[in-house]
Task: structure prediction
Amino acid sequence: MVRLDTKKIGDKLFVYPKGRVNMEIASEIEDALNQLIDEGCKFLVVNMKDVDYMSTPGFRVIIATFRRITSMGGTFRVCEIRPSVKRIFEILELQHLIDIYNTEAEAMAP
Result:
């Protein structure tokens, strides 16, 4: 089971996936994110500064987590995406669906 580093600031929870988010670990990351939501997280920020690569299953996890938390009235944001991964976000036009921020400080703003 993959362990995500987390940091809580007020009611906001930051998670930090690392390395390659590919088919092998995407479902484990999804399980970890779902557990955080089940535990009551309503404001989730995924900081992707340490993600070198993300495959299709990784993007599916981002979209599924976004849909789940927002359907419950929560907030989902992504920040600090590396240029190579951000390019794929843009190709998939996910920036029109998911709030993407350059820094954690920006992602924390109401």
Summary: The chain is about 40% helix and 25% strand. The chain has a mean pLDDT of 94. The longest helix spans residues 23-38.
